[in-house]
Amino acid sequence: MIVLAVDLLAPDAGLIIWVGITFLALLLLLKKFAWGPILSAMTTREETIHASLSQAEKALAEAKQLQSDNNKARRDAEVHSQAILREARDEAERIRTEEVDKTRVQIKQLQDSAQAEIEREKENALNSLRNEVADLAIRAAEKILRENLDADRQKKIVDNFLGDLSKN
Amino acid sequence: MIKRASIFLLLAQLAMMATPPDAFAQAAEEVPDFDALHHSANAYYLDFAPFPHVELPRIFVVQHQDGSYGLELFRSTTSAIVNGHFTVDQSAVEHGAPKEEGAAEHATPDAESHDADSTTVVAEQDAPVVADHSESAGAEVSLKDIESHLLAPAGSHVVLDLSISRHLFFAWLSMALVLFLMTRLAGMYKRGIGRDTAPKGLFQNFFETIIMFVRDEIARPNLGAKTDKYLPYLLTAFFFILVSNFLGLVPYGATATSSLMITTVLAVFTFVITQLGGTKDYWGHIFWPPGVPAFVKPILIPVEIMGIFTKPIALAIRLFANMTAGHLVILSLIGFIFSFAKMFGPGVGYAVAPVSVAFALFVYLLEILVSLIQAYVFTMLSALFISMAIQEHDHAHDDSHEVAHHSSPVSGSSEVASAV
To answer: Which of A132, B80, B183, B191 is an S-S bond match for B86, by CB 3.0 to 4.6 Å?
Structure first.
């Protein structure tokens, strides 16, 4: 048995009025006390996250830039140091060569001057020897002249002289 | 409510069957009547079967014989009948029964006697409401009386019945629940949880996911830049419908959204918001549809005007029908047990019971899905209708394109409607 005790589609003005008023109240209350704070908080958070993300991205880009800058600077410095080193080596080489040359020249000069000195001394010695020999010859001739008696004597004198000479 | 009620009814039946039936006819008479519609319909009490039911307050705006208006408040329907000398409107019961298809087929001697009884009452009703009737009703007020419309005492009539009905009670309950949950949620955000930090805990994460879904999947795609203006309404409607739908699936609960009156109120809200937001383009499209020859316009304009009203009507009926249908199917499946028991004897009733309960459980699970889908669909279509009204058309492009553009959301919505 089916009895349609209450019609499902029965109009009910009282229900419409109650629900209309209370639903409007619910809408206004929720809008003020729930959706407002909730949605604004969610928006704030999303903005914060968004800002943080873009900030992080920017920071990352900056860091990358910094790193590449650093790398570039390091490479430059390396190149620079290499250049300095090479320059220094070249300079040292140059100085060494210069020094060696200078020394060689000096040695040469010294050698030359020593040679000249030796030559001069030798000349001097020869001159003085020549003078001495001349003196000696004169003195020997003098002695011969003084004691020219006989041949024996003469011979004896010369021998004596020569003996003296070798002694000297 | 349905499941629990069905189990209790089953238990009641078991208890009855424990006493051996001496005759088939008697057994058939002892099987209680089971009316699916009755459980879905509105009433003025809360059902806690097998515990005593709780009557709800009755409030009437009454016009007295001398033309003055008065407000009559009663603690319960019983009180209204006993103390307020209100009478049960028997004509409503009488007129309802024959309309139902197959009522005669299922009619039992009990029903016939009841019908006969009501006709006698109707016959008496030509005379002013008799005092002795209220006296006899005062002695014992049945559940049927509580469900029925009440007539004011002699000489005056009810102008407006503002009684707290079951559907209204559950509508308020779901409103209170939504208000409580959402203000608590708002409190968390106000304290900074979820605003300055990540959302914390199951409660906040759960509801934030739903709110974000409504905002990002329903409101934003339709409303774009005007999302913030309409989001509070969409969220309120969504949560109210969702909670109402779910309250109908709880033991002893009732579905407020299975009342056409309540879904109508919701649809009226969408309607009003849509019309208030209507742009010049929106009204222009209705009263002077662009892109069609002049002789078509007289045909198209009434169609467009009808379209304004059919959208909210469809909204109201869709939600009401979906929420009522599921319950009716469950109750009908449970009702099979009683119908079979009555027609073929209790043994058949027992045999049918497991199948019926299994199917009812399946439909119950389906109803959980439907509850979610209908909350989504109502909100989605509301957003869509609002977006169609607030659209500012760019008239730079040609008319044919514009017509196609204009009609696409409509066809889309009707597709959704027919699919659901």
So the answer is: B80
Helices (H) and strands (E) in chain A, counts: 3, 0
What gap in Å lies between CA B352 and CA B182, rounded to an integer?
Answer: 44
| B contacts of A4 (beta carbons < 8 Å) | 37, 96-97, 99-100
Q: Which residues in B273-291 are b (16+ Cβ under 10 Å) and which e?
A: bbeebbeebbeebbeebee
Tokens of B291: 């892109």
Q: What's the complex ipTM?
A: 0.75
Measured between alpha carbons, how far is B237 from B314 in angstroms, rounded to an integer? Answer: 16
User: Could you identify the residue written with the tokens 């989001």?
Assistant: B231
Q: How far apart are CA B349 and CA B338, in angstroms?
A: 6
Report yes or no: A32 at the B interface, CB cutoff 8 Å: no
- C-alpha B145: how far from chain center: 21
Is the Cβ pair B37, A8 closer than 8 Å?
Answer: yes
At B24-50, the pLDDT tens digits run: 444 445 556 666 677 777 888 888 878
Residues in A touching B231 (Cβ below 8 Å): 35, 39
- Residues B285 and B248: their CA atoms lie apart, in Å, by 41
Q: Are B349 and B341 contacting, i.e. CB atoms less than 8 angstroms apart? A: yes
Residue B44 · residue B77 · CB < 8 Å:
yes
Q: Taking the domains of chain B in order of start, what are their residue ranges?
A: 57-163, 168-419
Residue A76 has what DSSP assignment?
H
Q: Can you give the pLDDT of all 168 residues of chain A as single tens digits?
A: 344 444 677 778 888 999 999 999 999 999 999 999 999 998 888 899 999 999 999 999 999 999 999 999 999 999 999 999 999 999 999 999 999 999 999 899 998 888 898 898 888 888 888 888 888 888 888 777 776 667 777 788 778 878 887 666
Half-sphere exposure of B141 (CA within 13 A, CB side): 24
B74 forms beta bridges with: B58
